[in-house]
Amino acid sequence: KQPSAPSAVEAPLRELPWGQLNFLHTTDTHGWHGGHLQEPQYSADWGDYISFASHLRRRADKDGSDLLLIDTGDRVEGNGLYDASDPKGNYTSDIFTQQSMDVITVGNHELYKNTTSSHEYAKLVPAYKDSYIASNLNITSKNGDSIPFGPRYRKFTTRNQGIRVLAMGFIYNFRGNANNTQVQKVQDTIKEPWFQDAIRNRDVDLFLIAGHVALRNTSEAEYDKIYDAIRLENWDTPIAFFGGHTHIRDFKRFGRGTEKKAYGIESGRYLETYGFMSISGLSTKSKDVSTTVASPKFERLYIDNNLYSLHCHSNTSSSNFDTELGKNVSASIATARKTLALDRPFGCAPQDYWLYRSPYPSNHSVLSLLEEHVIPDTFTDKNSSHNPAIVLTNTGAVRFDVFKGPFTKDTTYIVCPFTSTFRMIKNVPYDAASRVMKALNSGGPILLGDEAGDTEATYEDWLGLRPPGPVRESDLTADHAEDDLSSFTRGAGEQRPLRSSNKDKSRITPGYTTTDDFGDDGDDTIHEPIPLYKVPNIIGAEIGFSSDDKAKDLPKNVDLVFNEYIQGFTLAALKQLGVSYGLENTRQALDGMTMTDVISGWVEKNWKCEKDVA
Ligand SMILES: O=c1ccn([C@@H]2O[C@H](COP(=O)(O)O)[C@@H](O)[C@H]2O)c(=O)[nH]1
């Protein structure tokens, strides 16, 4: 772990369900490779993961089983270690690639910008060679051709058991990518001759489908389509899915009726979780056990990323856990953090502010802090025209909590890593401008105009602002305070209070309490549940309204200011509300400041640290 990271707290643990073929899965790490420096439960770093995987590999070699490592994308954007360097990712790609992977895929965050996808293609793809699988992604080459980002699939045989694996790697039907990459819709990819040939291959013991794709409830049902396509040709070869994108822990049984050979895991976010899956009873190159074992056994465990868990699951201790490579990688992370001055404080937060752990609006909501203080103060200072204004931002731009204490350079990127600036349209009729936020928060399907290029898309669907359907961390509601737990009716893929059978209540810490298709015993650490609350798509503030405006005569026109990321949505909403504007009517606001600049500037002015005050 990093020198300043807190030590893990001992807690009751469930055992690793080790099997014939074992998997460690990471997803949506978003640059948190230094671990969580303010949360003991997630305080191990990528160097520790390297040591951990090495111990489990040794265990596999010793007992003749196998271990495969998978990562399903969104490795970038969300932490100073990635975002603070110039160019971004200058340190993280060398740090990340020290961990070997058997299958690795791309996420939407690797594709938002030309520079990010080009960096990924130049660094990660060659580092992982055949393991970097891109079944439905192309990139524009230097001479303008659209070429595969990586191999479409990979067939390999596991080292100890001789299990023949055919692996593919997908990204969901993402449409917000920059113009140098091309995402092929999953429903079209499964019609490709290479896919059809691959799923007809009889010399396969396991189909491994990895991707930056939610396991359930997606409007496009990408993984269900892949499942159906495989089963059409191959009625009983086991299938293991590895998902991502929605930042949750989840385990799903695929298919209908008596299907017991197709399961998928999703392994959280921000290097809080290592997903572990095992399968036992697979046939192998040398032995066909399908005749003797009716169904392979799938098991899962979500491992909290801290040294207590990692030592226990690898049967090591602090004296023999670190490998040479793991230690070196932890040291490189510490050096990079120092070079980037990530611990430099902008100020000190007087209390915790939560994204999902406190209701919105409330005094402990980071969104309320932005809406009531940060945005009004900053925009009032910078509003040279003194026209009344309405300022809107998407809540998706806010990524994490703020903890009491130093608010550092790292924190600015942790809260908002994006480089979008603010745009404005001057003199918008108040009647329309004041209803944009409600329209964008309404959730129901609203038809977009031609500019979205897809008349059936909803605002949330378009660009993936809030993909409708999949349960994600922001959707986890919090009637958790209820005393009567029996009234819980939520389904799999959600976090809910766990009725723990554990007697040793004193050692139970707050954390994940996951319910999935296998029940509520998937988290390695037995936790006290944390309440989580829903947030809207958009928050906003009214700036420079005179008290007269508020009391009686509302302004006729206002300047409508919005985060550049929601420009398309805002224009579409205005059109829906009867006033049409085009891109040519928008101009830069706030001298090109990003949300990250807005937040750090406000903290510097308003949150003194105690020793500064003295
Ligand atoms: O420039 C950007 C890019 C993305 N966002 C927000 O992020 C989510 C997608 O993040 P996931 O981790 O893939 O869920 C997107 O819906 C936006 O809300 C942004 O604000 N600015």
Automatic annotation (TrEMBL):
This protein's GO cellular component annotations are:
cytosol; extracellular region
Residue ranges for the region (Disordered) are 484-523
Q: Which residues form the Calcineurin-like phosphoesterase domain?
A: 22-248
Q: Sorted alphabetically, which keywords does the UniProt record give?
A: Signal
The family database entries (SUPFAM superfamilies) matched by this protein are listed as: 5'-nucleotidase (syn. UDP-sugar hydrolase), C-terminal domain, Metallo-dependent phosphatases
**Putative 5'-nucleotidase C-terminal domain: residues covered:** 352-568
| Biological process (GO), any one | nucleotide catabolic process
Does this entry carry the keyword Signal?
A: yes
Q: Which GO terms describe its molecular function?
A: hydrolase activity
Q: What is this protein called?
A: Calcineurin-like phosphoesterase domain-containing protein
Q: Which organism is it from?
A: Extremus antarcticus
